[in-house]
Structure to design on (179 residues):
């Protein structure tokens, strides 16, 4: 077990970390039971004794309050639920994934890129498809446009066009979003 746990040796209240059990050194605290019932203001020793009797931890939830508010709860379970909540929030963030192609990219390679785009779209990410032109390829922009349209049509069952195909300099691109 690490030293930052509920019964560990770290006594300071670091950013984002609550004081637990013996780390609470305030004389009087307001106590809330694990079922949400207000137990009132009592000494921190009495509150800790109540928490121990219930087989739970005493956790400081509002240190700025006068007197500070402490809750009787299972601290390990509480930390686990917080970690799950943060992880869930991070998974919901959509990203834009970019797939780069050239007008002369082979059919098999294009299919690999389409399959990769399907994976990204399944994970609820947006996909930017960029066709890069070099040198004399700029004279055949219509080839790149055909390629881009064929990719869009092969992904139309799982994606919708969010930004229509545009050309900026030596790049032609569009953005697809999951349906």
């Amino acid at each position: 077990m690490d030293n930052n746990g509920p019964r560990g040796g770290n006594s300071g209240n670091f950013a984002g970390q609550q004081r637990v059990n013996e780390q609470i050194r305030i004389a009087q605290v307001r106590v809330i039971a694990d079922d949400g019932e207000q137990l009132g203001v009592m000494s921190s020793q009495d509150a800790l004794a109540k928490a121990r009797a219930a087989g739970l931890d005493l956790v400081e939830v509002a240190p700025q309050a006068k007197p500070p508010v402490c809750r009787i709860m299972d601290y390990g379970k509480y930390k686990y639920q917080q970690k799950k909540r943060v992880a869930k929030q991070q998974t919901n963030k959509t990203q834009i994934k970019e797939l780069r192609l050239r007008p002369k990219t082979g059919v098999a390679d294009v299919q690999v890129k389409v399959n990769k785009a399907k994976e990204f779209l399944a994970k609820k990410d947006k996909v930017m498809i960029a066709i890069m032109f070099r040198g004399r390829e700029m004279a055949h922009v219509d080839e790149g446009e055909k390629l881009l349209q064929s990719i869009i049509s092969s992904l139309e069952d799982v994606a919708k066009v969010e930004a229509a195909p545009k050309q900026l300099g030596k790049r032609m691109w569009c953005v697809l979003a999951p349906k």
